[in-house]
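Below is how a single chain appears once it has passed through the pipeline. First comes the sequence as given, then the structure the pipeline wrote out for it. We keep one example in the README because the format questions we get most often are answered faster by looking than by reading.
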Amino acid sequence: FSLVALAGLALSSTSVLAAEAGNTSTPTNITLQKGDDTGGKTDPIIPVDPLDPPAGGSLRIDAVSAFDFGSLKLGSADSKDVVVPKGKSIGAQVTDFRGSGDGWALTAKIDDLKGQKVPTNILKAAISIPKGKISTTADGDMLAPAVAAPLTLSKAAAPVMTAKKNNGLGIWANDFNGLGGTVSIKVPTNAYIDQYNADITW
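Resulting structure:
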């Protein structure tokens, strides 16, 4: 009987204390400003070599791959996959630290593939980039992501990764080969032998 009475008393005391405890509040604030327009560097979140020197700016390309297709013997095949260095990915990364939600587009275009031995040799090849795998940092919002798009490179700029309004804030990477496709080149059979180079503008 005494034990039951004490238990009841203890519950009653706890109830009174809870009723008497008050709440209070303290102010918290922070002002966010857009990233530095003249500097800035973000390490790649996929294994792609960063730009050197870094591009800088609050909206910037942090990293993008060069495409090396090695060599191809005419008549043995008409296409070749890009060479992927060991431990690396083929892709690109964009950082948007503007904090405005204006959206953005990463585009690519290519110059003529010109022969190095005979500059008048122009290789009319088709370089294709598949729809890649999009990733972001741990605090990125996959409900408002950047979006990958496939394309065949030409002299006209076309998107490989885009972010519509209120999407793509923060750090976003596109692993071009990440969904099972691969960057590849298709070569015509009537091409001249040479070493061909071109610049891709991103």
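DSSP finds one helix and 15 strands in the chain.

See the next section for the split statistics.
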